[in-house]
Amino acid sequence: MSTYDDLEVFEEYIKTRGANASKHNSAVRDNLIKMVGDVKDKSVLDLGCGIGEFSKYFADNDAKKIVAVDISKRAIDYAEEHNNHESIDYRKMDIDDISTLDEMFDLIFSDMVFNYLKDYNKVLKDAADLLTEDGIVVFSQVHPLSTASFGMESSWQNDEDGNLNFLINHYSDTDVVRKKKYFNGVFNFYHRRFEDIINGAYENGFVVSELLEPYATEKELNRPSFLLVKLEKRRK
Q1: pLDDT at 24 exceeding the cut of 70
Q2: Confidence band for 167, pLDDT divided at 50, 70 and 90
Q3: Most distant pair of Cα atoms in the chain: their distance
């Protein structure tokens, strides 16, 4: 069962995602939309669609079809009730199983899900097989500097002069699963270095065409919270 199927976790998630005025939400959302560009008449695969906010955006902006998958039944049920559209096909599906899809897509999209994926390379390999020749992959995730530490508590610390600093440790330890506390629940997180993200993309047939580290608050000037990535198929 997905952690998001826990009612308490899901309700906190809804409250956070529903806060449209959230600086963090807008920092990621606005930049992702710019990265994606025009979706008119495009076919879209939304990986880890959650409650369907981005799927509904794609549909409202004239995407031809959207296949939206998520492992959480509670999230899919909510999406079908609150973010439904005739162009959207919501499916309860593990992202590890997308290789079973028999459709091709112009855009493969994922918002804040890749840190939950144990096998980054498999997902990219499957994405390459499902992508049209001129298609793109756009995804956001928690920034690698934020996922490096093992502890569930905040790594922000004040030094003896009262200056706020961020503690970075265990950056190279990619074989240890992190446990992070979000939305009143504990989630397994998979930490990857920048080289893992970029080289993994190249090894699976992609090039990185755009990389963004948006910040929403002054504190994040010291350490960004998010990483946004746009991939294009590598020309042979």
Answers
A1: no
A2: confident
A3: 59
| Section 212-232 average pLDDT | 83
Q: Are 160 and 217 in contact (CB under 8 A)?
A: no
Nearest residue to 187 via CA among 137, 100, 112, 75? 112
* pLDDT tens-digit series, residues 78-97: 999 999 999 999 999 999 99
Count of other CB atoms within 10 angstroms of residue 100: 9
Query: How far, in Å, CA of 144 to CA of 148, rounded?
Result: 6
**In sequence order, what DSSP letters do the residues of 30-95 get, joined into one string?**
HHHHHHH---TT-EEEEET-TTSHHHHHHHHTT-SEEEEEES-HHHHHHHHHHS--TTEEEEE--G
Identify the pLDDT of residue 43: 98
Long-range contacts of 133-137 (CB under 8 A, 24+ apart): 133/233, 134/106, 134/233, 135/104, 135/105, 135/106, 135/107, 135/108, 135/233, 136/36, 136/106, 136/107, 136/108, 136/209, 136/230, 136/231, 136/232, 137/107, 137/108, 137/109, 137/206, 137/229, 137/230, 137/231
Q: pTM, whole model, 2 decimals? A: 0.90
Residue 19, pLDDT above cutoff 60: no
- The pairing of strands 226-233 and 206-212 is antiparallel
What distance in Å separates the CA atoms of residue 214 and residue 66, rounded to the nearest whole number?
Answer: 26
Residue pLDDT, tens place only, 149-164: 776 556 667 777 777 7
Distances (CA, A) of 85 to 24, 66, 136, 208: 26, 9, 23, 32
